[in-house]
């Protein structure tokens, strides 16, 4: 009988022990799309809002009148043209002609934050040239455009080999001299972000500098980073592994990359890639934003930050990101995927003041 009692006690022991606490899910705050216009990210033509709406209505209406996203990043501004305030066939005073106040208001009037992205992989050499020529004036010009249009600015400087970090620091310092960091997020023009690689093994020098000096929770300079899409759509496990690299840092690198606070970055997926419509665009139930949602909402700090959970998701890219392949225009609009995620995750619109720790 004693042996039977002991055996029963052993069998019941797991039921009697306290269950480890599960990390509480932190609501997503950033849920947005990069937008390439109708000419593969050039934005060279002025468009009527009627034409624009016909091809992009899903962004402002997920099917029930509510927007599918809370931020749109118009991509891309040419760095040298912005520095020189160039006016030519595709550019007006340094800004692509298609990035008009009407397009900004199309989104902002529905509670969607708007940003302009400077650079992209095509304009890497132009970033180098603008920084080398006059980084501070480049930063001031970016701040002037942000104020004039009521938008934020994204730094998309994709120099993997010996980036000009001194120049980039001067650009950021100049921008912040005009528009100081605003933890409330109330001033759209004060929002200044940066794009990093999907993980810590590309854009290493930029990632190290941004994590160590600009994305700290105690002395923030930039609002947050976007961990960009990798070369092709990842699996759920590969996406999580990439993001975990940012959380962990790279202590074995020389010099090391410090850990990044979960509250200081988003993850990203393709919605338009190749010749097929992605579930991330069309079907939330089968999407990566659904399968990775638990991780993104509960990712634990690993030496930086205090609160769990990444900021949210970004999607590459609305309308026509390349001259070939699928677009997100009807019948391929993304209410079912991106819009479905906005509903499932109760994405706040407009974007609230972001977590700071």
UniProtKB/TrEMBL annotation:
<feature type="signal peptide">
    <location>
        <begin position="1"/>
        <end position="23"/>
    </location>
</feature>
<protein>
    <recommendedName>
        <fullName>GH18 domain-containing protein</fullName>
    </recommendedName>
</protein>
<dbReference type="InterPro" id="IPR017853">
    <property type="entry name" value="GH"/>
</dbReference>
<keyword id="KW-0732">Signal</keyword>
